[in-house]
Write a structure and sequence with these properties.
The complex is a heterodimer of chains A (80) and B (456). With 80 residues, chain A is an all-beta fold. Chain A has strands at residues 3-7, 12-15, 37-43, 46-51, 58-61, 67-69, 74-79. Chain A has no helices and seven strands. Chain B is α+β, with helices and mostly antiparallel strands. The chains are: A mainly beta (80), B alpha+beta (456).
């Protein structure tokens, strides 16, 4: 089974939820379709969506909600 | 003065500014910082620096416990909150006081009172300060709101009682829209601010934003005249001036007196700003809100009055009386501040962190650049995009604008996108030169001058 990596397009802060008290965009282990929103990257108070470029049966996040990230950092892996 | 060592609970250009003010008063400084700000100018300037957490503000600059612990460990006797972060958090002010330290600003009760938009409106009304027609208290329900909106006339704004800084505001044109938007606004306010309380204000069609700087020591209160802050994008100020143009001297006097009355009403201690909407058509002004902190745009007031507002607020917190009488505060010339942000105006203000490769700043007697930049500094992505504030003074507004145009040509920042080109275009604009602007001017102007490119 191959894995696809989800990379952050920008440095900033990664959020798994649309709002602090909202459920995550994707739970760990959830199935993913192309175009699904996986999280947000905040760059200087500007929020950019991270969307799935691959479909898969299960997603595993490698970054916590609210964690600082670098550009090109692996945010999650998607099992095909 | 009862202060010897000041902990600076902020970052960026304002942390640099506070470090400078402390040094000018002979005070030592303690700079707290996140892991992302280890190499910042404020950390280099301070006598001591303490890391308080990782990059995200929620884990560092917003951590009251970590900041209080740093103050205790470093022997600081006062805390300066700057602006943003915890600057208008009454619980933070209380926690600082409870730790036996001095909070440089008004006390927690005053911050909470003036931070509640509905309560602040009531205080203003009691002090005889004109308020925008609208609620005198939180609205009980949608029917109470509809009745009030009908009485004051549409369009009206539905505002969150706990909102501020332009957030939590909806403009509605008629009763049907009001009934539809009200429950959404309540839910949104509850989610965003933890408080679903709403109030209603009449929408002023063409208004300018004019604010009055105040200083108070709890016994005596002075104003330091006004700032004109109408050039805004998404309700964020972009360019500020002092004094306001096209403002009758009697209206100016009435506005400044109103701000002083409001300060006296709450026995204000520290530096604060009373914000007004000004309707040029009727020459009427209306109270909007009070900011209980130093403002980003305070330098334009300093440039026309010669005061050091940050030093003054530290002295007041240290138990000294106001160092000036009202008659000591006089306007000399005109000042304009341009907020230079790490944003690309040609790409819908997309922000861009990065490393400063080259920096050329034409400072002089009439030119000031408040900034945390230096060559080789990496602007982190975790905080706001403000790189610095270019402030220019002139004998009058026309000369100030001419000097600004010249200075903007000489200001060079390479390595990150900047809004210098935006300010150059504004400084050359005929409507700006004539002062024919209101708070909605800039967004319309941007659509014509910096159109958003179509998405590829």
């Amino acid at each position: 089974m191959s894995k696809q990596q989800v990379l952050s397009p920008l440095p900033g802060t990664f959020y798994r939820r649309p709002a602090p008290d909202a459920p995550p965009f994707k739970e760990d282990g959830a199935a993913v379709a192309v175009g699904d929103v996986l999280g947000l990257v905040e760059v200087m108070k500007n929020f950019q969506e991270v969307t799935a470029e691959y479909a898969g049966a299960a997603i595993t996040f490698l970054v916590e909600d609210g964690e600082a990230i670098d550009a090109e950092q692996v945010l999650a892996e998607i099992d095909e | 003065m009862n202060i010897r060592r000041v902990l600076i609970a902020n970052r960026g250009e304002i942390a640099v500014r506070i470090n400078r003010a402390c040094k000018s008063l002979g005070l030592s400084t303690v700079q707290v910082y996140s892991a992302a700000d280890k190499d910042s100018l404020a950390v280099r300037m301070a006598d001591e620096a303490i890391e308080i957490g990782p990059a995200p503000a929620a884990k560092s600059y917003l951590r009251i416990d970590a900041i209080i612990a740093a103050a205790r460990a470093s022997g600081a006797d006062a805390v300066h909150p700057g602006y943003g972060f915890l600057a208008e958090n009454g619980d933070f002010a209380d926690a600082v006081a409870a730790a036996g330290l001095i909070f440089i600003g008004p006390d927690g009760d005053a911050i909470r009172l003036l931070g509640d938009k509905v309560a602040a409106r009531q205080v203003a009304a009691e002090a005889g300060v004109p308020t925008v027609p609208g609620s005198t208290a939180r609205l009980a329900d949608v029917d109470a709101g509809l009745a009030l909106a009908h009485r004051i006339g549409y369009p009206v704004m539905i505002k969150a009682a706990a909102g501020g800084g332009g957030r939590g505001i909806r403009v509605v044109q008629d009763a049907e829209e009001f009934a539809r938007q009200f429950p959404q606004a309540a839910a949104e306010a509850a989610a965003a601010f933890g408080d679903g309380g709403l109030y209603v204000e009449k929408m002023i069609a063409s208004a300018r934003h004019i604010e009055v700087q105040i200083l108070g020591d709890g016994q005596r209160y002075v104003h330091c005249f006004e700032r004109e802050c109408s050039l805004q994008r998404r309700r964020q100020k972009v360019w500020e001036e002092a004094p306001a143009f096209h403002l009758d001297s009697q209206v100016r006097a009435a506005m400044c007196t109103a701000a002083v009355k409001l300060a006296a009403r709450v026995a204000y201690k520290g530096a604060g700003t009373v914000e007004f909407l000004y309707d040029r058509a009727t020459e009427s002004f209306y109270f909007i809100e009070v900011n209980t902190r130093i403002q980003v745009e305070h330098p334009v007031t300093e440039m026309i009055t010669g005061l050091d507002l940050v030093a003054e607020m530290i002295r007041i917190a240290g138990g000294e009386r106001l160092s000036i009488e009202q008659d000591d505060v006089v306007i000399e010339g005109h000042a304009i501040e341009c907020r230079i942000n790490a944003e690309n105006p040609a790409r819908n203000f997309m922000p861009g962190p990065g490393t400063i490769k080259r920096l050329a700043v034409p400072v002089g007697d009439d030119v000031r650049f408040d900034s945390m930049l230096f060559e080789g500094y990496t602007v982190p992505p975790f905080y706001d995009s403000l790189l610095g504030k270019l402030i220019v003074h002139g004998a009058d507004r026309a000369r100030c604008l001419a000097r600004l145009r010249d200075v903007l040509k000489k200001l060079e920042i390479e390595g990150v996108p900047t809004t210098i080109a935006l300010h150059t275009a504004l400084a050359e604009d005929i409507d700006v030169a004539n002062g024919d602007i209101d708070t909605r001017f800039l967004e319309g102007w941007l659509e014509r001058r910096f159109p958003t490119p179509a998405k590829s």
